[in-house]
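Quick illustration, no need to memorize.
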Amino acid sequence: MDSRLLRTLVRVARLGSFSAAADELGYTQSAVSQQIAALEADLGLPLLRRRPVELTEAGERLLEHAGPLLLRIDAARADVRRAAAPAHRLTVAATPLAVTPAIALRLARARAAQPRLHVELRTASRDGVAVEVATGRAELGLADGITAPSDPLRLPDAGPMSAVGVAEEDLVVALPGGHPLAGRAGLRLADLVDAVWLQTSLCPLERLRELLGGGFREGLAYTGDDVHTVLNLVRAGHGLTLLPASVGEGVPLLGPRLVHRVELLHTRLPPGPATQIRDTLTP
């Protein structure tokens, strides 16, 4: 199965239009139609209805496989190129809360040891970090999440890569200043299941419900990843949330025993600066 044809199918399915897909891919509409026809001929099944443009049942099944297949192809291409790539630049993809104070210091030490290496740090979602590393757009990734102590994070299967824990810290419950529990020495989640909580990517309510089997009424949903915005929303009474203790605002979480965990993601790295920085970031 030609991956180029599969990418064209994904684009047409996403846009719902042959002409829009052609514009985005830089092809003619005729070329896009020919590619879809070639893919259908290869499989011996129609994949798209033309008017209106929509997937057939066979097309929907193929589309389910397309994402993982294309990601693995991109990961393989990146792995081959990485082995021969010049080692003067390094990109690190990180989730918004992954660069804790301790990790920032380790990264500073690593850069000081290799002053000629240009390091770029960019933010991505947890799934996005895994994809960035798998496809070679980043040599290293830092992903964070809420988990039980020493338990690994749940990361997408983006291809062969290693994930090692590099930091764990306690969590705090972020509360408005006038909240009746704000003065406590510590809190348990079981005492807060009926409270209103922010829905954020930094602290997904699905994870808390999974840990305690329900509860956690959803207040405002924030789709961004800026910690200051989250804290402002908490202060204004839109809902509670959990944050790493290093953020500095909140009541310590006493139970259940949960931590903010950071993992370092990488594929096979050739000897050189990327390997040295990986080793420096790993405690």
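The first strand starts at residue 48 and ends at 49.
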